[in-house]
Write a structure and sequence with these properties.
The protein is an all-alpha fold. It has five helices and no strands. The longest helix has 21 residues. The radius of gyration is 14 Å and the shape is globular.
Amino acid sequence: MLLKDCCGWEDTLFKQPRVNVGNGDIYTSTAKSPKIPNSIVGYYDWLYSRRNALVHGDTPKFLPSDIKAMKESYRVDLSKSFSLKLQSIESASNYYSKICEKITSDSR
């Protein structure tokens, strides 16, 4: 809602694959990922699902409800488990930095 209301982003921008899942960069468009949702909102949801699994499941395995939601919302087949490496933390940090840059530049 923030990007839509404050920055004037169109609804279509939230559904298009735009995030490089390998490093968190945001592009105008990119190829759809079959395993990780790579729309702007989808990637955020995926990151949140990883956090959710660690906090509520106490294990690096996606919760069944998150797997189902990702399949229904983004048409991706998440793996049941994931690894948490420095590269994945750097990718998440890069993604959030890029979103902040977009908010700053698009809201002016």
